[in-house]
Amino acid sequence: MPTSKISPYDVIIIGAGINGCCSAYYLYKAGLRVALIDQNGIASGGSGAAGAFISPKISKAGELKDIMSEAHAEALEFYTTRFPQFTLTKELLHIANSPQEADKLECFKQETQLEYSTIDNVLKSLLTEEAANESHIYFSEGAVVDAQGVCEALVEGIDFFTIKADALMYEDELWKIDHLSAKHVVLSIGAYPKLLPIDYVGLRGIWGHRIDIKTSTDIPCILHHHVSISPTTKEGIVAIGATHDVHYSPFSDQVYDIESGRAVLLEKASKTLKLNNIEIVRDYTGLRSGSNDYLPMLGNLVDAHATLSLYPHLRHGKAVNMREYVYYPSLTMINGSGGYGFVLAPYLARLLSEYLSEGKAINPILSPSRFFPRWAKRQS
Ligand SMILES: Cc1cc2nc3c(=O)[nH]c(=O)nc-3n(C[C@H](O)[C@H](O)[C@H](O)COP(=O)(O)OP(=O)(O)OC[C@H]3O[C@@H](n4cnc5c(N)ncnc54)[C@H](O)[C@@H]3O)c2cc1C
User: Fold this and answer.
1) 48 C-alpha to center of ligand 1: Å?
2) What are the boundaries of each domain within the chain?
3) 193-245, pLDDT tens digit by residue?
4) Atom 19 of ligand 1 has which residue's CA nearest to it?
């Protein structure tokens, strides 16, 4: 059958990272006809590089903490009950890596509902003196998922196409991408070029490196300190991640130095515990895309050109209600999860599905268009 005969989908999702895969999972379950596309393959971007720890964010009270706590609880439940074969659950030891983090951690302890205890002498004896004496919290439940495995399992049975979306065209109430069309588009393209003139969306891609190693040291729990270290899997693998290289971009001519990336990871891991007889098994690198205000993004996108034409005084800082902006039709972005993409994805994708299938409003605090007024003011 010629591919042009494919009838319109309800939704095309662009980008098959954890955000795109979780969105596809929920929308398909809600009964929508879903097509998922990616220029490379499933979990080929930042998601494939992730250590994929499902850990709480240690932050002080506020909107970000509330969203992260809800998302964290939902993610633990989601992966452990729906994808147990890709989820390793273990205790989690979070050790402060600076005096500021120690302060945050002590505040977090006062407020958290999560179960935690003190570490026993066996675990303490594994740690370096620096790590053992630092402020810490030992949660009874943590998890780490197999990033590639879980993304593939999420999209089982869903139509997947290897397509690079170069342009998005909206015609006759349908979005057209390559030979596909749909009533709605979900943009889950992480830190890749944005595809639309939406410069106001405050996103930054940060390069990260994780290694899988073999070591004769048995790691009994998840460790977060200067880097994150996974427990030893049944295959004898320990994952160590991630570096945060703010200077490197895969979209530039620079060459990333894998050897020095590994050295940094191992040096940071050695501040937590001594790893004996190390053998590097594999490197994973990728971009995570974080929002400028650390809150994730889920919502419709303002058409900047149309909105500024209608309300030119936005350029002079005059306020216009967000509801009055002109939005791209039937288009939603899910992005900006920073180092917590696997923690946030089940929560964000569920909200997206409730929005598209039940018309439930999305909390405007998550809207990617929240950055628009400030950007518009700079356009004068
Ligand atoms: C080293 C490292 C360690 C991490 N550790 C953790 C962790 O422990 N826990 C955690 O929760 N998070 C972690 N993260 C963060 C997490 O990986 C990200 O937040 C998450 O991957 C973001 O997912 P995404 O789906 O938004 O983007 P991505 O996974 O980057 O997916 C975007 C996809 O879009 C595709 N795409 C882009 N443009 C186009 C186009 N024009 N046409 C077609 N396809 C396109 C890309 O090929 C890509 O596959 C880590 C990240 C890194 C890099």
Assistant:
1) 7
2) 3-45+150-202+293-374, 87-143+206-286
3) 999 999 999 899 999 999 999 999 999 999 999 999 999 999 999 999 998 88
4) 341
Is ligand 1 within 6 A of the CB of residue 187? Answer: no
What are the tens digits of pLDDT across the range 102-122? 999 999 999 999 999 989 999
Assigned CATH class of 87-143+206-286: alpha beta
Regarding the beta carbon of 165 and ligand 1, being less than 6 Å apart is answered yes
pLDDT digits (tens, 9 = 90+) for 339-375: 999 999 999 999 999 999 999 999 999 999 999 999 9
- Look-up of token digits 């594994």: 126
Q: Which residue has the higher pLDDT, 150 or 246?
A: 150
- Residue 11's DSSP bridge partners are 34, 184
104-108: long-range contacts at Cβ-Cβ below 8 A with a sequence spacing of 24 or more?
A: 104/58, 104/59, 104/60, 105/58, 105/135, 105/136, 105/137, 106/135, 107/60, 107/61, 108/58, 108/59, 108/60, 108/137
**Is 0.90 topped by the overall pTM?**
yes
Indicate whether residue 56 lines ligand 1 (CB < 6 A): no
Residue 162 pLDDT: 98
- Which CATH superfamily includes the segment(s) 3-45+150-202+293-374? FAD/NAD(P)-binding domain (3.50.50.60)
Ligand 1 atom nearest the C-alpha of 343 is: 11
45 Cβ below 6 A of ligand 1: yes
| Residue 256 CB burial class (10 angstroms; 0-12, 13-18, ≥19) | middle
Q: What single-letter amino acid sits at 379? A: Q
Ligand 1 neighbour 340 (Cβ under 6 A): yes
The residue whose C-alpha atom lies closest to atom 21 belonging to ligand 1 is: 47
